[in-house]
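Subject: Re: docking follow-up (zinc ion)

Dear J.,

Thanks for your patience while I sorted out the input files. As discussed at Tuesday's group meeting, I've set up the holo structure prediction with zinc ion included as the bound ligand rather than trying to dock it afterwards. The sequence and the ligand SMILES I used are pasted below, so you can double-check that they match what you have on your end before we go further.
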Amino acid sequence: MGRPKKAQPAIEKPPAKLPGTLDLVVEQHRTWDFFLHKLFELAQTFGYQRVDCSLVEDARLFKPWEQAGGELVVFADTKGTRLAVKPLNLFGLARMYLDYRFFEKEKSSKWCYVSPIAFIRNGQIMQSHEFGFQVFGETSPIVDAQMINMLLKLFTELELKNVSLEINNIGCLECLPAYQEVLRGFYKEKKYDLCEQCLEDLERNPVNILACANLSCSTVSTEAPVLIDYLCENCRKHFIKVLEGLDELSIPYNLNQKVIGKPWSRKTVFEIRSSTEKGEVVLGQGCHADDLLQSMAGPIVQALGFSATIEAILSAFEEAEVRVNQQHKADVYLVPLGDLAAKKTLKLFSELWSNNIVASEFIGPGSIKTQLKLAESNKVSIALIIGQKEARDGTVILRDVRSGMQELFEASRIIEEVKKRLGK
Ligand SMILES: [Zn+2]
Ligand SMILES: [Zn+2]
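The structure tokens for the complex came back this morning:
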């Protein structure tokens, strides 16, 4: 036997996480799982079915994203078709809705989803998980109010602090273009006070200027014409009914002109925020996208959705100092001492499992004292200890963790004894 061969490293130093990519280490994943559990529970109560759309699509699907200045992660297949990773779920969901002809099957499709997304920002890949709720089909103002109601329930039940609702109506193809003209005229007079980005938006989409955080721009915007005064009859009625629905549910809201949604947003646009002394987190945004399916050569179908990313949720949990407890609950704690004992517990573990008894396994270094302490801190009442002698004799020590009382049992009898003590 010679010395074990050393592997030659393929790279010079240990690889690091790429900027913009996403790792979820244990703590973060525990929080994320806890959140998703609540999310799906509530979704079911409110009649939303879980779906997921493909990670990769024909890049043409994301044209509105690119037109709005977004960059895609693109590549070509062997035939040269331009493909892209989805930068958000909405377009893929719309494609799926059309592809499976849901519009022929049901009046309204209510979906919830969680799925990875990726896009490019400043030349760097940005990876995330996006979750949300999407309705295609009939969306009366009541549906808007009910979706907001569900979301506020979700976030307050998670103990996030000062959850608030900012709401606006961004109009439709009928009324928005006229308002944009009015707004363009207004900002043209003040163009020397606008930042570079807003000057670009002045021609393309002056509504964006309303949301600019730059001090000089936002000062100008305080005097800007208000969209609500320019809404068409349809949009105005819709908005009033949404607000009446919120009043009915006793949901407070702030009318906020700075909440403008995305270029494909129509009618109701809203943001849900959470704040602590440390700052404010925008948890996510919702809007109608009533022209989207038509723009994809589909039928006239209304769309209402809310979406948010994992980053917003994790940072809101952190700011609100919400701690998620370890979910795993064991019935018994296995304490093997030495190699032979460790081997014996392998079998015992699976026998316990077959009898519906969850064992927490501790195979590793550490004295019996630290192992028993762990059992106690995890509120496990029974520890099964196998030392070298017990491993050889085919016996197991059963210890009542709280009282410290110990008894020796034949290995063949231990399952029955544990069941008796656990009342199973
Ligand atoms: Zn309108
Ligand atoms: Zn600006």
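A couple of observations from a first look. The chain has 16 helices and 16 strands. The pocket of zinc ion (ligand 1) is lined by residues 171-172, 174-175, 231-232, 234-235 (CB under 6 Å).

Let me know if you'd like me to rerun anything.

Best regards,
T.
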